[in-house]
């Protein structure tokens, strides 16, 4: 009887506490068992648990009905969870700008926001988020096809703390929007602009030295733009896989001014010539991994420059390079003193004898036949809230 009276007394005291006090108690409970025990004595348990929620993740579904249900219940979920730090709405094609109203109203705690493939969101929705979420450090707008330079300007004006931004397949943006990001977000570290063919690179002029990671697959970067991309001086990783050229010319010489570069993916850059390879090999002394797979324009002068200058190169990809021959392999054998892995297959001009001589001279170099589609750090790690 005394225990029942004590339990009733505790429950009565807890019931008198405000939501803020209950939330403070809840947040100080570290173990799940303690939180569950607290829930048994708290009449407002479900309300407190919702308020304390730190993340909200909607998983991608191919079910059209699920799309609509998620979009409809989202505003209520957001209203009940004012202290969210992470929201992921990936794949909600039915999501409209109005669904983001609550994010703008109570998003001061929000640090990571993903609208991955939310093609219904426009600049107006992004503006609502930008105004109400000043502490965002991670934003993913991959395949948000209706986001334009105006949306990026709103984002940059409201979210000065941005560090990681994914704009892959945002086909309506241009250098103007990129320039506004760099002008207002001076701590940005990682940027993805893959398949944004309206970006030439000149919007990178004056980019901050904090920018160390750039994904620009299948972009249409110009020679001038490439020089502007290197202007910040901090790039350590750059992916230019399948770089396009409206003029049909090699525009990659500017990469040679990236002194801190460590990982470079030039796979399928068909306009690449020896001139740019020589500039990169001599101008990027820290490079550790370099993919030149399917780069048919690299010939003996390029391979010789790599062997002569790339003293820190550990991993080299030369898969399906039509113009690497025994002499080129010989140049790599005599140089690249730290080479550990050579991805090589489908190189028709290399003979069995040439490959055997390389193996004898450099037995510690592991020869791989696989062709890596991507290299360097994981994108997921760069866009994960710490």
From TrEMBL:
Top-level taxon of the source organism: Eukaryota
Source organism phylogeny: Eukaryota, Viridiplantae, Streptophyta, Embryophyta, Tracheophyta
GO biological process: SCF-dependent proteasomal ubiquitin-dependent protein catabolic process
Signal peptide coordinates: none
InterPro entries documented for this protein: FBXL15_LRR (IPR057207), Leu-rich_rpt_Cys-con_subtyp (IPR006553), LRR_dom_sf (IPR032675)
Organism: Triticum urartu (Red wild einkorn)
Every F-box/LRR-repeat protein 15-like leucin rich repeat domain range: 93-203, 258-358
Record protein name field: F-box/LRR-repeat protein 15-like leucin rich repeat domain-containing protein
UniProt-listed PANTHER family: PARTNER OF PAIRED, ISOFORM B-RELATED
CC per GO annotation: SCF ubiquitin ligase complex
């Amino acid at each position: 009887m005394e225990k029942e009276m004590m339990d009733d007394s505790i429950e009565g005291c807890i019931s008198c506490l405000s939501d803020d006090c209950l939330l403070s108690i809840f947040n100080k409970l570290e173990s799940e068992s303690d939180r569950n025990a607290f829930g048994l004595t708290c009449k407002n348990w479900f309300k407190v648990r919702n308020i304390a929620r730190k993340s909200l993740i909607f998983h991608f579904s191919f079910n059209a009905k699920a799309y609509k249900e998620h979009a409809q219940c989202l505003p209520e979920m957001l209203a009940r969870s004012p202290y969210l730090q992470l929201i992921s709405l990936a794949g909600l094609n039915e999501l409209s700008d109005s669904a983001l109203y609550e994010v703008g109203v109570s998003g001061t705690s929000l640090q990571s926001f993903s609208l991955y493939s939310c093609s219904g969101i426009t600049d107006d929705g992004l503006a609502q988020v930008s105004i109400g979420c000043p502490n965002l450090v991670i934003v993913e707008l991959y395949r948000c096809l209706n986001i334009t330079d105006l949306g990026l300007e709103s984002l940059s004006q409201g979210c000065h703390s941005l560090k990681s931004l994914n704009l892959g397949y945002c086909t309506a943006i241009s250098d103007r929007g990129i320039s506004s990001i760099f002008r207002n977000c001076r701590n940005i570290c990682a940027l993805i602009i893959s398949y944004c063919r309206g970006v030439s690179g000149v919007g990178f002029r004056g980019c901050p030295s904090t920018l160390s990671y750039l994904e620009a697959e299948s972009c249409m970067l110009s020679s001038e733009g490439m020089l502007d991309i290197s202007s910040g001086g901090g790039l350590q990783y750059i992916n230019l896989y399948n770089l396009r050229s409206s003029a049909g010319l090699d525009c990659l010489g500017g990469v040679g001014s990236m002194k801190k570069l460590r990982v470079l993916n030039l796979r399928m850059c068909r306009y690449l010539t020896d001139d740019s390879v020589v500039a990169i090999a001599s101008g990027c002394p820290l490079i550790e991994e370099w993919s030149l797979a399917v780069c048919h324009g690299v010939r003996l002068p390029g391979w010789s420059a790599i062997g002569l200058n790339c003293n820190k190169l550990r991993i080299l990809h030369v898969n399906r390079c039509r113009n690497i021959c025994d002499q080129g392999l010989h140049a790599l054998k005599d140089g690249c003193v730290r080479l550990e892995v050579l991805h090589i297959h489908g190189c028709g001009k290399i003979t069995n004898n040439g490959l055997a001589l390389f193996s004898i001279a450099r037995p510690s170099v592991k020869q791989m036949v696989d062709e890596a589609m991507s290299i360097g750090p994981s994108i997921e790690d760069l866009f994960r809230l710490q």
